Amino acid sequence: MPLARRKAREASGTLAVLVAVLAAAALVACEQPAGLNEPTPTVSSLMVSPQAITLLPNQVADFMAVGFTSTGDTAQMSVTWSVTSGAITDTASNGGRHYGHYKAGSDTGTFKVVATGHPGGKTADATVTVTAVPVASAVVSPAVASVPVGGAVQLTATTKDSAGNVLTGRRVTWASSNTAVATTSGSGLVTAVAAGVATITATSEGKNGMATVTVTASSGGGPITDPGIILTVPMLAKSAFLAPLYPTPFNLKVMRIVGDSGTPFTMTGGGSGTWGSDARHHYSDDQPWNADGTLLMLQNSGSPSDLVLDGNTYQVISGGCNDGGYGRWHPSLTHAYERVKAYGTELWWYDIRTCGITRRWSLPFAATGDIEMGPSRDGRFMALSNATQVFVADMDPQPPFAPYPSQRLGPVYDFSNCGAPSGCTLDFTQVSASGRYVIVHFQGDWQQVLDVDPNTLALTPRAMPAAAPRCTGTAAQGFIYDLGHPDVTLNPFDNNEDVIIGQEHCGNIGKTVNGRLMGGVVMVRLRDGAVTPLTDPSNEAYPYHISARNFDRPGWVYVAYWPSPGKRFSDELVAVKLDGSGSVERYAHTHSDSNAGGYRAEPHGVPARDGRRILWASNWMLNATGGSASITQAYVVDAR
Fold this sequence. Notes:
Elements: H1 3-31, E1 43-49, E2 52-55, E3 60-69, E4 78-83, E5 87-94, E6 97-103, E7 109-118, E8 123-130, E9 137-141, E10 144-148, E11 152-154, E12 156-160, E13 166-167, E14 173-176, E15 182-184, E16 189-192, E17 196-204, E18 207-216, E19 236-237, E20 253-256, E21 264-266, E22 272-274, E23 278-280, E24 295-300, E25 306-310, E26 316-319, E27 328-329, E28 338-343, E29 346-351, E30 357-362, E31 381-385, E32 389-394, E33 408-409, E34 413-414, E35 426-431, E36 437-442, E37 446-452, E38 459-461, E39 483-491, E40 497-504, E41 512-513, E42 516-517, E43 521-525, E44 531-533, E45 543-547, E46 556-561, E47 572-577, E48 584-589, H2 594-597, E49 606-607, E50 613-618, E51 624-625, E52 632-638
Parallel strand pairs: 2-8, 10-18, 19-51, 23-52
Antiparallel strand pairs: 1-3, 3-6, 4-7, 5-6, 7-8, 9-12, 11-16, 12-13, 14-17, 15-16, 17-18, 20-52, 21-22, 23-24, 24-25, 25-26, 27-28, 28-29, 29-30, 31-32, 32-33, 32-34, 35-36, 36-37, 37-38, 39-40, 40-43, 41-42, 43-44, 45-46, 46-47, 47-48, 49-50, 50-52
């Protein structure tokens, strides 16, 4: 074959192969995805969802970031997260979607959650508003207050959410509707300016709470002395700690002298403690003030269990000396800082300032720790007992007897066979105010009087005149008229005779006994059992407890009355004169519902030694607001 023809044929075959290859390449190119060989497209935008959200402090939420190309396709990229408050606690990616798990911080305000794409550095952010639960209501306490001109009362505002939960840390502003009557500070301290009424408003996040403050001109008078009128117990809000009230109709100063349950206090003598839900005095026949009135002893279910307060300002000075609050102040000014305490087979005097024992006696048996009514009026004699026996201790022997530390204890007397047909189960024993008698008080409220031999301290039943009224036991065994919740004193209207005064418990209220109409409060002379009714039974409420601890104001006894709506003395603290005239002084309503609060909510009213102040316990639930069945606290009415 000629060369030219052969070359032509070779060229023609090569072209065919090239065409075939190109065709094949073109076919393959048509089957591959478009842009395979193009450059990676850039990220044109980044979005975060949700773009705005409102959270509570420390609440969590999930955010998602997605990048997009210029054609709107999902971009392949990585994302990092940052925040201006709070934290991203976890991240994840899936199919071009990027997730951040966010937890808000404790601060409130507006913050950013930022997503940054990698690579071409795009950012996007979301707005997070952290806000607390909104205030739905504001409640002011006390809601009603009575303040004398020049006085002050501290109001508090409690903010709550829509479910009634208490909210803390909310800003509260205060305003008075009548600044000519009462002004208020930024903290809610209301100061009385002039007689009248002002509404005090607390505002938080647009929600208002209100209190009505009545400013009274001080009456400058004393207690109500009319025994015949019926006084209605007014509805009264519980006072704030150490904030004076002047409740109608008495208009005498009343103060709560213990703080709110669970709140701390600092002692002026050093140290701290916590108020308990039961913070009150011991009992009506236990004088809480010491002999010179500078100290006041309380029991406290918080810590410490005994508290010594300033007797006038009521500031906590120190804890007690762990006597359970059952010791008794020595009644003598010479021993004003000493308390008397029976502990097992020992009797102590100890100094409240140091808790050091100043005098000590060894006893013939383990005596009851609650030494009823304490020593005799001069602080010398004490009756100590167990369930069946009693004896007298002379704690400060005088000539012709050897002085302390000489131990002068009388012989033990067994009263288990007392002769009472109803039995001889002991309630308590007590020495009389003069120390000349011991009274054995049996369960069922009947009393046996024993003579104390002045030389040997031996005890023997004091034979009573057969004509002396009684309803239990015999005259020969020394039984006298039955009395409940009694106390002992000396009667200045009867040559300072020893007497015992208590509730009438023979069932003769409204009846005539020995020519006298018997009321609810009865006095019995220990020498001969003579009975004197001290109150008129006409529409008289029934007395609770009786106290004669007013050593420096002789001739009166103090009575707390049961709530009896529509009756004279209902829920009142009343002083009754011992001359049998029926004269009274009416000081305050106790506002205590002991049916709800139990024994510790019974007022157990007890006067200071001068008789011008009365301390009582209350759960503030009777015709009152702000009280609680589980909280019992100490109050003082002051007529000085």
